Amino acid sequence: MVVCLAGCVRSNPIFRRLAEKEDAKRAKYTDEAVSKSPELQELDHLCTKEIPLFDGFVPNGRFAGPTWTTSLSYYYRSPAAYAQVKALYVNYFSQNGWVLTRQKENSWGPDELEFAKQPYRIIISHGGLGDADYAIGCDKLSASGEPLPNKALQLTAR
Fold first, then answer.
1. How many CA atoms lie less than 13 Å away from 6 in the CB half-sphere?
2. Rounded to an integer, what distance in angstroms lies between the CA atom of residue 44 and that of residue 42?
3. Rounded CA gap, 50 and 4, in Å?
4. φ/ψ bin of 135: left (φ > 0), alpha (ψ from -120 to 50), beta (otherwise)
5. pTM for the complete prediction?
6. What is the tens place of the pLDDT at every residue in 37-81?
7. How many structural domains compose the chain?
8. How far is Cα 11 from Cα 15, in angstroms, rounded to an integer?
């Protein structure tokens, strides 16, 4: 019922326009956040210039996390099979000193691969993402492995 409700709401023209307006606000917030935060600029570089993008991924949005985390999420449309996407990223990350820290597949919610290499965590998600087929979540972590607050954004959010 919940899955149908989410899909039905987005397919309704009135709710779709509201969702698109909200997405536009989030995109504007993200652009401003990245321009003000060296930490988000660092993450943006890592996740768009260093980590390869699966061939055929079409960008569908980029959003900054809340002020209590230093995170960016990138959304993509793609008909690519999850097995192919998974193989590319497992291969890339393992060859570049990252560790696969979590793998969730064939259960409730999106399939996910989580990789870590201090001070970063990358989560590749597939399925259950609304208008996107895949997401790449990029987090900067503290030395203890917890999400790092984005101090630059906390100051501007007040």
1. 6
2. 5
3. 37
4. beta
5. 0.82
6. 999 999 999 999 999 999 999 999 999 988 788 999 999 999 999
7. 1
8. 7
28, 82, 84, 133, 136 from 57: Cα distances, Å:
22, 12, 12, 9, 11
Helix (H) or strand (E) segment spanning residue 35: helix 13-36
Mean pLDDT of the chain: 85
Distance from first CA to last CA of the chain, Å, rounded?
A: 39
Q: Which pair of structure tokens corresponds to residue 140?
A: 């900067």
- Domain hosting residue 64, numbered range: 2-157
Rounded to an integer, what distance in angstroms lies between the CA atom of residue 137 and that of residue 114? 9
User: Could you tell me the two tokens for 16?
Assistant: 């779709």
Could you report the per-residue pLDDT of 13-46, keeping only the tens digit for each? Answer: 777 677 778 778 888 888 899 999 999 999 999 9
